[in-house]
Design brief:
Immunoglobulin-like, 36% helix, 29 strands, Beta-lactamase, elongated, five-stranded antiparallel sheet, alpha+beta
């Protein structure tokens, strides 16, 4: 006992001496702080701190400011948007002050009382350990460090003031001096606002916005006392065990007058500590593909938010429609789809769905911008150009029959998708029913190069020259993207005027609109594509292209069913839909009315649930005539013409008298054809069809003569000739022996 008493006596003496030394140190410290405080370094304003505190994420907003997506751009930390104190839960503010600086509103930046108490406690603990005395646990909420919130903020604003073992004392008094200066220039609310936004939490988390969303999946305003307490005690010990955090959280809740919140607290703490917190911050949302372009722009412009032209409600609904229909046709080997909705008047992109998300094998691929073969979707532009040049009218007849065309070093033999042919059809029927052969005959009439230039004027991405595509360009052999193609259709909706689309409100399209087609041609094309009777030959009268309000629409299906399109417009909107597979696999029996069509129909229906679409007014230069058809299976009807091209009667060539008919030519084979004999097939079975450009029912057909050189082969509009190797001249003569046409072919 005596030894123990002696030890305690020495302890008290040493403690007294250390306390005296502490007072002297504090006095000197106060003097140095006063000198530093008299001329502190320049302090930033709250506005400057806010401007320098950037979120780790780019927020993509819709046209009304609703969040569509959030993309991480800073991988050094996870920090959310700057919040004002009004956007932070009062419960968290209360917990924070109680835990970190309970005299925050009473001191001027340095809590001298807390500093003295903390220092004394530290000395007492060190002395007790030195004397091998039992000491009480000095840890706990509200008893730890003496750094005030203002001092902590000073260190956050200046990393050089953050304490380390080498420069702790010098940094400490600089922290204090800076904190005193902050309190002189900033209000308490400003200090607190900066603090909660710069506060480091567990792991990479910085700021209350990121912490609240990461841990609880909610905004900071919605934190309840229990949630607030757990975040507050993590500030000092972010990596403490669940048991320790539970203990400290309960202590804090009691100090907050919330003891009931301690019930079930252990389960609560364990549950939220085990969640994959970062995933709640970077979860995919509604427009991931467009968000990529938003992030690129935001990085270039150093912006944290991008206000887009998208409509969040429409974007969500389009996603739902796409998912629904694609799920229904998955058995047809279909995985991917894309939808684009444009505002006709402004060119704003209202919905941008680049993929079928989880249904896709390649969800990262943006199919709105991915080039795919466009198939029959180019036909409206071909016919619009021919209308403008007054070479054809909506009532003009085109022959839907087999055709061979010399292309490059071989033959181009287009076919209709069903391998059937309609004979003479009007341009209206050919376009609305998407017949291939009439379109090929039309491009032969127009020429490939003029059509190529017209597509270029619509800013359609043609990466090869016109010779590369040839006549197949009429049937959409080129690869294009849904964005460019849908906007080209929008030019038809806008009376033939092209203008660019836009998605970023900060960079709305300002380019001067360009007239690509006349208003008359664009209007007539729209009328034909809206004509359900004209499309009945291919699609029937009852199909998903027939909306209960006015729309003009065109489908397209590429070779081997690799791509399926439906693009059309109403009075206010243009909607484009693509369906297919990212890897290029063929679909199974998926056409416009079964693939892209139903998606297009439902999107259009949603757009017009509160407003109906009416047909655009007819341009003054469009005239109406009742047309009578002779020799063609089309009923008499009122037809529309560009002024100066109108007619009242249209007669098929096959119904005219011989002297009124056009010259007869050799339709097959094509001049310059090169053919090869198959050695594995009997020679007698290898025959070439010689065909004249008139029907077998034509009165002149039986008297036609086919000659090989000077040798007469046979008579009639058609003749099958047994192939022979060599270079040959095939001649066609009439009944009087007059030469009508001749072609040169080579058989190898």
């Amino acid at each position: 006992m005596k030894a123990g008493s002696t030890k305690r006596g020495w302890g008290k003496l040493l403690y007294g001496l250390l306390s005296l030394a502490l007072l002297l140190v504090l006095a000197l410290l106060a003097l140095r702080i006063a000198l530093y405080y008299a001329a502190p370094p320049r302090l930033p304003s709250l506005a400057e701190v806010k401007a320098a505190t950037s979120s780790s994420y780019v927020e993509v907003l819709d046209r009304r400011g609703l969040v569509l997506d959030r993309i991480r751009q800073d991988f050094s930390k996870r920090q959310g948007e700057w919040l004002s104190l009004d956007e932070v839960s009062p419960a968290f503010i209360k917990a924070l002050i109680q835990s970190e600086d309970k005299r925050f509103y009473q001191h001027g930046g340095v809590d001298w009382l807390a500093l003295v108490n903390a220092t004394q406690a530290h000395l007492r603990q060190r002395l007790s350990r030195a004397l091998a005395l039992n000491s009480a646990d000095t840890s706990g909420v509200g008893r730890g460090g003496a750094s005030s919130i203002s001092m902590q903020l000073a260190a956050m604003l200046n990393p050089e003031l953050q304490t380390n073992t080498l420069r702790s004392y010098r940094q400490k008094w600089q922290q204090m001096a800076t904190a005193l200066a902050l309190e002189r220039h900033w209000t308490k609310q400003e200090i607190l606002e900066a603090y909660v936004n710069r506060l480091p939490f567990r792991g990479e988390l910085v700021g209350i916005a990121a912490a609240a969303e990461s841990f609880y999946g909610k905004y900071a305003f919605g934190l309840n006392p229990r949630e607030a307490a757990l975040l507050a005690v993590m500030i000092r010990a972010p990596n403490a065990s669940a048991e320790r955090l539970t203990e400290r959280s309960c202590e804090l809740l009691k100090k907050m007058a919330e003891p009931a919140a301690c019930q079930g607290l252990a389960h609560f703490v364990n549950y939220y500590l085990r969640l994959p917190h970062p995933q709640t911050l970077d979860r995919p949302q509604h427009a991931p593909h467009l968000a990529r372009y938003a992030r690129q722009w935001a990085n270039q412009q150093q912006q944290q938010r991008v206000h887009t032209s998208l409509d969040a409600a429409l974007q969500r609904r389009v996603n739902e429609i796409l998912q629904h229909h694609l799920s229904e046709i998955r058995d047809a080997t279909v995985q991917d789809a894309a939808v684009l909705v444009l505002d006709n008047a402004s060119g704003a992109i209202l919905a941008y769905v680049g993929s079928s998300a989880q249904l896709s094998a390649a969800p990262e691929v943006d199919h709105v911008r991915a080039p795919r073969q466009v198939a029959s979707t180019l036909k409206p532009f071909l016919y619009a150009q021919l209308l403008d040049e007054k070479r054809l009218t909506a009532a003009s007849l085109l022959h839907d029959s087999p055709i061979n065309l010399l292309a490059g070093e071989g033959l181009y033999i287009p076919q209709n998708h069903d391998r059937n042919y309609a004979g003479w059809v009007t341009l209206r029927t050919a376009l609305a029913s998407s017949l291939n052969i009439p379109a090929v005959r039309a491009i032969v009439l127009l020429g490939v190069e003029p059509f190529y230039k017209k597509l270029k004027a619509l800013h359609l991405p043609l990466h090869q020259d016109s010779e590369f595509y040839g006549y197949s360009l009429a049937l959409g052999s080129a690869d294009m993207d849904l964005l460019s193609l849908t906007n080209a259709y929008r030019s038809l909706a806008n009376q033939g005027v092209y203008s660019p689309v836009w998605w970023n409100q900060a960079e709305a399209a300002t380019a001067e609109p360009v007239a690509v087609f006349s208003p008359e041609a664009a209007w007539i094309i729209g009328d034909m594509l809206a004509d359900r009777q004209a499309r009945a030959y291919t699609f029937g009268l009852d199909n998903v292209l027939s909306t209960p309000f006015w729309t003009a629409v065109k489908t397209g299906t590429s070779k081997d069913m690799r791509d399926n399109w439906t693009i059309g417009w109403s009075a206010d909107y243009t909607v484009g839909v693509w369906v297919g597979n990212s890897d290029g696999r063929s679909m199974q029996n998926v056409y416009g009315v079964s693939g892209a069509g139903p998606i297009w129909y439902d999107v259009m229906s949603y757009l017009h649930q509160h407003q109906r679409s009416s047909a655009p007014p007819k341009p003054s230069a469009v005239v109406t005539e009742k047309v009578h058809f002779v020799g063609v299976a089309e009923a008499e009807r009122e037809e529309f013409f560009i002024d100066g091209t109108d007619m009242t009667e249209v007669v098929a060539l096959s119904s005219l008298a011989p002297d009124a008919l056009a010259p007869i030519t050799i339709e097959r084979p094509i001049n310059g054809s090169i053919l090869a004999i198959d050695p594995e097939i009997p020679a007698s079975s290898q025959k070439l069809l010689l065909k004249a450009s008139l029907a077998e029912s034509d009165a002149r057909a039986p008297a036609l003569q086919w000659q090989l050189g000077e040798l007469t082969l046979g008579q009639g509009s058609e003749y099958f000739w047994s192939l022979r190797r060599g270079s040959h001249i095939i001649r066609l003569k009439d009944a009087q022996g007059e030469l009508l046409d001749q072609v040169r072919i080579t058989v190898r």
